[in-house]
């Protein structure tokens, strides 16, 4: 296996795109994070810049895998044929910013990277979160929920920016998948360890609610770790969205914020993204605390789905934390079908070893 690395300037990114995008687009549902982030950045420059770009080639020169990392976030990879993870880990061994941030993706891909990395460093892989990928089957629109959906306008910007900050705060402090890091079992040669519950999306009422009704889940755990958490352009000086430009910046990047309102009062919002390789992703979805437990989150999610389909999406997907029981039931009830697990892993130095001391590279944090 031959691993090629690319500069992150426009010329390097273009060269990587030419070889990597067909590999990623071969499985656009599973690779939705990478494809969507790349498309949004190409439209408007939104989001962190690429910090690591690589492709893997077989002995005949064919591209068999792709890898990328956005500054400040974990490595993402395409499907990895035999030998590709070892080749990547060896080539990227000295990129300390990369390994400090870890990796995110389908459990089998992350497990292959873990196996390749820790064998040479003795580091301890730690799972920060596991996410369930859901794909739309047949949409079931919630009934009996007060209010209607509408497209967000510029006038909604200050409110949605404030809600976005609330969403980020809830994820940071209350996200049920991140209270205590859990060491990752290093998988054996027979395959990855897919630790985590089986499909939690049972079609039953939540405690305290009659059959056919569900509580509003509040902050949507279906927004993934890393660069995709909320996805809004940073504001001046504080990394948060600029209230005056929130909606305009969202639309420039290809994101479609949708407001659910009751009697003219906004009570929840969700975001759908323009299709990338035919796949549109929903997230974040957020209901402020004072408006929760009325079914607004599933209602606005269904509205986002309709807009994604109208925009030409062949598939619509979202992610949930596997530990978040209520959202998993809600999304199952409105027609999403549970799929595979994604895992976010970081690497900690072994207690009796200093951090891996390979030659440093110019990779950004």
Q: Short description, anyone?
A:
Residues 174-246, 346-365 are annotated as: Disordered. The chain has 365 residues and is α+β, with helices and mostly antiparallel strands. The protein has helices at 10-25, 32-44, 84-91, 96-101, 107-121, 157-174, 246-253, 296-310, 325-333, and strands at residues 2-5, 50-57, 63-70, 75-77, 103-106, 124-136, 148-151, 182-183, 255-262, 265-273, 279-286, 315-321, 336-348.
Largest sheet: 9 strands, mixed
CATH superfamily descriptor of the largest domain:
Gcn5-related N-acetyltransferase (GNAT)
Radius of gyration from CA coordinates: 20 Å
User: Distance N terminus to C terminus?
Assistant: 27 Å
Q: What low-confidence regions span 5 or more consecutive residues with pLDDT below 50?
A: 174-238, 355-365
InterPro entries: Acyl_CoA_acyltransferase, GNAT_dom
Pfam family, one: Acetyltransf_1
Biased composition (Pro residues): 178-190
Biased composition (Basic and acidic residues): 346-355
Question: How would you explain this protein's 3D organization?
Answer:
With 365 residues, the chain is of the alpha+beta class. The protein has two domains: 128 residues; 191 residues, Gcn5-related N-acetyltransferase (GNAT) (Aminopeptidase). It contains nine helices and 13 strands. Strands 5, 6, 7, 8, 9, 10, 11, 12 and 13 form a nine-stranded mixed β-sheet that branches. Helix 3 packs across helix 5. The longest helix has 18 residues.
Topology, element by element:
Blueprint: E1 2-5, H1 10-25, H2 32-44, E2 50-57, E3 63-70, E4 75-77, H3 84-91, H4 96-101, E5 103-106, H5 107-121, E6 124-136, E7 148-151, H6 157-174, E8 182-183, H7 246-253, E9 255-262, E10 265-273, E11 279-286, H8 296-310, E12 315-321, H9 325-333, E13 336-348
Parallel strand pairs: 11-12
Antiparallel strand pairs: 1-2, 2-3, 3-4, 5-13, 6-8, 6-12, 6-13, 7-9, 9-10, 10-11
GO molecular function: acyltransferase activity, transferring groups other than amino-acyl groups
Biased composition (Basic and acidic residues): 346-355
Domain N-acetyltransferase: 212-354
